[in-house]
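Materials and Methods. Structural model of LysM peptidoglycan-binding domain-containing protein. The 120-residue sequence of LysM peptidoglycan-binding domain-containing protein from Luteimonas rhizosphaericola was retrieved and submitted for structure prediction as follows.
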Amino acid sequence: MSNDKKPDFSNVQSGANTRSAGGGSGTLAGARPDFSNVVSGADTVPGTPAGSARSYTIEEGDTLSAIAQRVYGKAKYWRQIHEANRAGIENPDRIYPGQVITLPAIDTDGDGTPDDPAAA
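The predicted structure was written out as tokens:
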């Protein structure tokens, strides 16, 4: 037996009021969000000293070791990339095109100071 009756959504109304239920000072629908802290075209990662890290968008065919090879000159730095992105990359073998990761500053020349990934 199949039920061919479709749900009736004729009484559904659009619109939202995001004011908190407790009557607090929430935002009303239609209010303009504040994007004053957004920087267009930024290649550095917010919250890090200038030049100490940058963002990278995963492309088709990328692996963490290939990215490490291209950016730092050695594939072995994939672990540092994974560690810097632990919150977004649970399994280092499973990264996806479009995923944005942080390329951390890594001491690649052994002088004791992290090197800027943008300089590579």
